[in-house]
Amino acid sequence: MKIKTAICILLVNIFCFLSLCSCSSSGKSYPLTIGDVDISAEVYNYYLAEVKNDSVKHVDVEDQEQRAAEECREFVACNELIYKYGITLSPEEKVAASEKIRGMWQYYSDFYRFHNISKQTLTDMIEYEMLVDNLTCSAVLTGMSRDDALKRANDYFNKNYVCVSLIYSPFTDKKGAVLKESEQKKLTDKFTDMRNIVRRGSTMAFAASKYPDIAEYDETKTNIISAADSGYPKGMFENVMKMENGAAQVFKFNDGIYLIRKLDITDPEQNYFERYKKECMLALFSTNTFDAINTLAQSYKIVYN
What does pLDDT average to in each consecutive run of 10 residues of the chain (305 residues)? Predict the structure, then answer.
């Protein structure tokens, strides 16, 4: 069986391209043919809705339709690669996809219905996007073995992530009012004392117990902070990265004050990398995937039916 024919069957079987009466701007069930693959109106509408949603970049209607067609072409190319390399979803990933789709449909079903996109097509597209991630994480497009790719990802993790335990208190009271300078100083003094307690060999939990009015600490929780993490104050990652493992330090930022104890990100017993392996592989190798998709997509002709 030729790959293109197989891909056509795969697309029909996996993504259930449905024939709708008036799904696209042309009103046709299959508004596009790309290579040997007919693209259903719902799949075309899915990408057209995405492009319209990004109207800052794509304002002109003709530009929107052209970009949606190009997205469909990349969709076909990627599915050929997915088929070629035997990429699948695990049972756990299918469950995760189902849960994600349930939430999306609950909150955004009116949006999808407005664009004539069924829940089944949304399901197919979300699972497809997960398959794209799995294609990247398989490392088949990197030009290196998976073991070498994982080693590179592990090195990336060690250089771009830090692990800490922390105690935090905001520079605001319970009503949200900013603390006076004198109150901030008292808070800083307490955090400094907790830091000194930790430095003398006590645990973070013991230090926090000295000031239960300001310090809440969960000794079962560790925090992984990445260089690109926007959930923490700017500069925190860089400051923590300079610390030695086991060291404790107090940091003050605009939002509040932190007592940080740096943990060993490479601790084999904790195996922190395993939790972030996929994230690191995607950060490193997504460009390889997109380049391969784009190269293959350029070989397909878009025909408007």
Answer: 39 38 52 94 95 74 91 97 97 97 96 95 97 98 96 97 95 92 95 97 93 80 91 94 97 94 96 96 98 97 93
Q: Which domains are present in the chain?
A: 3-138+281-304 (no CATH), 156-263 (3.10.50)
Spatial strand order of the sheet with 161-170 comes to: 223-226, 161-170, 256-263, 248-253
- The residue among 88, 149, 125 whose CA lies nearest residue 286 is 149
Please classify residue 294 by burial: count the beta carbons closer than 10 Å to its beta carbon, then call 0-12 exposed, 13-18 middle and 19+ buried: middle
Could you give the residue ranges of the DSSP H alpha helices within the chain? 3-15, 41-53, 61-84, 91-114, 119-137, 146-160, 181-199, 204-209, 236-241, 272-297
Distance CA 204, CA 220 (A): 11
